[in-house]
Sequence to fold (594 residues):
Amino acid sequence: MEPLDAYLRRQRQLVEEALDQLLPGTDCYPPVLMEAMRYSVFAGGKRLRPILLLAATEAVGGEVTAVLPAACALECIHTYSMIHDDLPAMDDDDYRRGKPTNHKVYGEAMAILAGDALLTHAFELLSGPPLSERFPATLLLQVAHRIARAAGSFGMIGGQVMDVLCEGQQVDTAVLEYIHRHKTAALIEAAVTAGGLLGGGTPQEVAALQHYGHCLGWAFQIVDDLLDVEGDAAQLGKAVGRDAAQGKVTYPALLGVEASRQRALSLMHEGVAALAAFGPRAERLRQLAAYVVSRQV
Amino acid sequence: MEPLDAYLRRQRQLVEEALDQLLPGTDCYPPVLMEAMRYSVFAGGKRLRPILLLAATEAVGGEVTAVLPAACALECIHTYSMIHDDLPAMDDDDYRRGKPTNHKVYGEAMAILAGDALLTHAFELLSGPPLSERFPATLLLQVAHRIARAAGSFGMIGGQVMDVLCEGQQVDTAVLEYIHRHKTAALIEAAVTAGGLLGGGTPQEVAALQHYGHCLGWAFQIVDDLLDVEGDAAQLGKAVGRDAAQGKVTYPALLGVEASRQRALSLMHEGVAALAAFGPRAERLRQLAAYVVSRQV
Fold:
């Protein structure tokens, strides 16, 4: 089996080539909008959500290249959420992945609109060609609905709202867990589930993948909190210690560093356990789980 | 035939009852998000896009109550675009329809997120129950794709970007027309087209409705520009003369009031002419066209 880092590089390239093809080009009108959309999409990033989607498709024996546009839709949603999160009215961040944030380059109005356009583009991708030429409409509709639900007021946006509202507040574990499960885990869960559905997984397989995705997404956010405490700013490409400075609710602040690390590990194990029935086909998903909790970036 | 104003009142009520049912309730978590979404959705409004969608469904002999969730999806998209347009970084408006704008009540962060949530909710409505229990998935996917395209970078957002970029600039008629056709006409066209598709219209009927919708949407924006010059602030529920003060590109500024009025009228006639083959079934659409160009609000 190809080493994980080579696999990640290869998948990342696959996703980035597809994004380049599937996003409007800067030869389209109005070019500055397309440029602003592309600026943040191509500002680096691990491409975790698309790679998880592709790996879930592989795990159920589906064809990876066919589902690439759905993987790109997930990355569009993730990128829009980052652009809006970074706005002065929200987290007010100047840098992300070592580059100036969208509004620092294009201004606030364009950053809001580029985010809106990326969110809308995700649903254009999920409902149109090439996916609609390849997959049954019932399946695509189901995937679009799950992703919309995961990204909306009962998912990512709900979590983001509570994250903003709880800044500087004393909150308990229940609220912190609501934030993590919605702000981050919901979309990662949707990515893995979409990969399973489009890959032709059985309902049992899709349910197992969904459980794995939820655990992994949650662990991912705990590790994100830990990296803000312990990470290396140069490596991360953004300032560390921002969470504490902004009075953000985080796992390490509430439970301490060691207990947070244990929580992330136990979620990883729970996620991997959900994949037992898959046998060797889910090996990449297991490796990706270990990667998520051990990552330094 | 019931007089138009009674018809409009009745349809508006139908749409508002459906919106109330189909938007997350304030008993859902987090309540402040649901409240912010509902605040702008229920802050008045003509419900033009949903009413046009329903009238297009009627014109092709479809069932109005079945398509209501799609009509609500259009209103969600329209409302999100208003919330984001009103933000300080965009048009910086304090009032809309006589009420404080979303960010004046809930703050900028919540206004951005409530807009994002409404946009996402539109695609949740278009891809899930009750529509998915009633209509073939292929049809819903087609409708979702057309609406996404009309709302995105090649449609409404593209127009909005140029509107923002051209503030205080000298522009020619071609750019002004790009802005109007994209910022406003694209979504109105999509509403009418969606009504025709879901109502079971033939490809010819849908194409005719699309042409009508485009003309009507364009005329609507010209009238909007005219009302900003000549309208009554109290009646409109917002300040007038804002376009000129903000250096916005408008029809009256470029062509004069009289030529603008003529352009709106000629677009209305072109739109109505596209409906010739429908006979009496399209009478409401014809009345709605006349209403759009003669409105004072």
